[in-house]
Write a structure and sequence with these properties.
The protein is mainly β. It is built from seven helices and 30 strands. It is about 10% helix and about 25% strand.
Length: about 500
């Protein structure tokens, strides 16, 4: 029953068993869509085997730790979760594709926000193929996708395809809809060598801190969005559609959070996904991809927050010619004509910046036409955007006993056209937040925007009472590289008497 798997290498069964045992931290689960045994039964050197993502993740026990996580290993195959989003709050879990190639393990669905299972449309959150809400969750060598092709159901210039779900009350389904591949709603979530494929709203970073390295995120509008602090390091961010006016990001960063989305040493490409077996099985996508000068780096989803929000920063990134010369987009016409929300001042709605942007060949971009309410960072400001700084606590008594950690004065509140000129005194009503993740612990922009506790007085004041989760606390500095180091090296699938197992390679 395993004849479709590739034989990549061999090693002795005794060595294999010892190797797998040495990798086991708490529990090691094996998942294979072709598994026909009893779900939960012991399987070779694995704690248990399962045939589906739902069964495996549902069985993950508690009791693991950040340094002793549970492991869920995925055999090559396509795992379609069906018509219900999978949501898990399990912490301390590593999800690992066995072959080491993200294209070999695909977790997908055909859900979208307009899908109606009989009790009403499921909405954006419900459209997610998978929701990971635990802390200290790691994934490697996996493709997370949403295979709905609603962007191409009826759209001038595209092929017409039929909806895949039940659209009670909206049987025509003639427009695109949010269709999330992965929703993140936990802290300390790290991804390595993973793909995230979709169109609108591909990757939903809903709070907490997340890190992506050597990953690909593909979509056509607002496809990296929400209020999390996320770093994309050495990644490919691909605009895969040709819907003019689409945005890469739609951040809704809380104004009390220093950073939203940060792209480091990455490439913003514009490659069509026409014929892609995962997300364009109907060959509906335009073969040419996005047109030149037609797309944006981002727009401020959370623009109605008082005092500034929607943080997105690009540092040392290569960019496709599909990005418009103005770079950034306002949210909508309401934002431009709303004196009650930030005085219709776009500079108070966003913290958008970039440094050393080039074309895909490495030639410097002409950024002279960027919107006036975005920022071009100086070399010293850009140098502060490191993984260590972004995921560090803002206040650290051991390294900065006299006050608040600060590696630059952030964006100003009194002069929105010139970053770095705001007040660095956290007791000052015009205090400007540091440009990295930190506790929400000081006044911002006006004296009315206070948080619990006394600004400027250690210990760190609490979260704002109006914050969505005022009891949420930051667990200190986070180094995602340490977390990713626990993921086994890409191994080999070896067949022994009908069993498939991992023969890991030793780290050098």
């Amino acid at each position: 029953m395993f004849r479709n798997h590739r034989r990549i290498g061999v090693c002795s069964l005794s060595i294999l068993s010892l190797a797998i045992a040495s990798q086991a931290r708490a529990a090691t689960y094996y998942v294979d869509p072709n598994y026909t045994g009893t779900n939960g039964a012991a399987y070779g050197s694995y704690t248990a085997a399962y045939s589906s993502v739902a069964a495996a993740l549902g069985a993950v026990p508690s009791g693991a730790s950040a340094t002793n996580p549970n492991y869920v290993y995925f055999a090559p195959g396509t795992y379609n979760v069906g018509s219900t989003t999978l949501s898990y709050s399990k912490s301390n879990v590593d999800l690992v594709g066995l072959s080491g190639n993200a294209n070999d393990v695909v977790i997908t669905s055909t859900l979208d926000s307009s899908y109606n299972p009989g009790s009403g449309a499921i909405g954006t959150t419900g459209s997610a193929t998978l929701q990971l809400k635990g802390n200290n969750v790691t994934a490697a060598n996996i493709t997370f996708a949403n295979s709905t092709d609603t962007p191409y159901i009826v759209n001038t210039g595209h092929s017409t395809v039929s909806p895949t779900g039940s659209y009670t009350g909206n049987n025509s389904q003639t427009s695109s809809a949010p269709a999330v591949a992965l929703l993140l709603q936990g802290d300390e979530q790290a991804f390595q060598n993973c793909n995230f494929l979709g169109y609108q709203d591909t990757l939903y970073t809903k709070g907490g801190r997340s890190y992506f390295t050597n990953c690909t995120v593909s979509g056509d509008d607002d496809f990296i969005f929400a209020n999390g602090t996320s770093v994309f390091n050495n990644c490919t961010i691909n605009i895969d559609g040709d819907h003019s006016g689409g945005c890469v990001t739609a951040a809704s960063t809380d104004k009390r959070t220093s950073n939203g989305m940060v792209f480091l040493n990455s490439s913003i490409t514009g490659n069509s996904v026409h014929g892609n077996s995962v997300i364009d099985a109907n060959n509906a996508a335009n073969v040419n991809g996005p047109a030149a000068n037609s797309m944006y780096l981002g727009r401020p989803w959370g623009w109605t927050q008082t005092g500034g929000d929607s943080s997105a920063v690009y540092v040392n990134d290569k960019m496709t010619g599909a990005i418009k010369s103005v770079g950034w987009l306002n949210w909508d016409t309401t934002e431009l004509n709303s004196p009650t929300d930030n005085n219709a001042n776009l500079a108070e709605d966003s913290r958008f910046a970039e440094y050393d942007s080039t074309d895909l060949n490495g030639n410097p971009l002409d950024v002279s036409q960027r919107v006036a309410w975005s920022h071009q960072l100086t070399a010293s400001q850009a140098a502060a955007y490191t993984v260590q700084n972004i995921f560090a606590s803002e206040y650290n008594a051991s390294t900065n006993p006299g006050g608040y950690a600060w590696y630059g004065t952030g964006y100003p509140s009194t002069d929105t056209s010139n970053p770095g000129t705001g007040s660095a005194n956290p007791t000052d009503p015009n205090y400007s937040w540091a440009a990295y993740w930190g506790d929400r612990n000081a006044e911002n922009e006006t004296g009315n925007d206070t948080v619990a506790g006394t600004p400027g007085t250690p210990p760190i004041p609490g979260n704002p009472t109006s914050y969505s989760d005022p009891s949420w606390t930051l667990g200190g500095d986070w180094n995602p590289l340490t977390q990713l180091a626990l993921v086994p090296e890409p191994g080999t699938l070896v067949i022994f008497g009908g069993l498939i197992a991992l023969c890991p390679r030793r780290r050098k």
